[in-house]
Give the backbone structure.
Amino acid sequence: MNEDNHIVKSYGEELQLLTDSIIQMGSLTESLMLDSIKAITIIDKEAVGRIVESDKKINQYRSKIDTQIMTILVKRAPMAIDLRVAITALRISQDLERIGDLAKGNAKKILPWPENLPEELLKSFNRLGSLVSEQLNKVIDSYIKKSKDIAIEVIHADGNVNDLAYSSIKEALSFLSKDIKHLEFATNLLFVGKNLERAGDHITRIAENIYYLAEGEYYKNK
């Protein structure tokens, strides 16, 4: 009886450690996204190196989580809710890693920028980045609380991210049209907008997986 209790406790601890790793990875990714947006908004080129190093930590978490999941699958052969915990952890860690890559890539895009880009142009990308960061914060909160309702809110708000991305990209194209010398800067701005939109898509996928974790079925848009 004591041995069985020890096994159950150990299994529960493994699942909790996996959940904790996802939360920690999510927190690091959120911080990286905020740092990236700040660097873009104020064209802080010195921050790029720090952002690249932070992304390496996120990648390390992904490797750690892969190992944790493999251990659980091989040792425990989980079923039902426990299997969903492992499956969603794998999927969410993949999306978090990709969000980190996109945030890092965006920060590197500012390196050739001049210091005097139009303030309104940068504000447009700051609005987009702030919304993406807010979405990321909410989806991590949803995972912590295992809240399908917060997950649904995140899914529904993805359209707002797409709208702001379209608006930001439109402003970058307008900036480009005024002077061909702006080509390199504007092209990088286009990539920043598109990368933020992609990050929003990954956040939506995380929310969909949290819904699956909570409900045992995938969310269907009504």
In short: The radius of gyration is 20 Å. Confidence is low (pLDDT under 50) at residues 1-7. The helical segments are 2-42, 47-76, 80-109, 119-145, 148-178, 183-215. DSSP finds six helices and no strands in the chain.
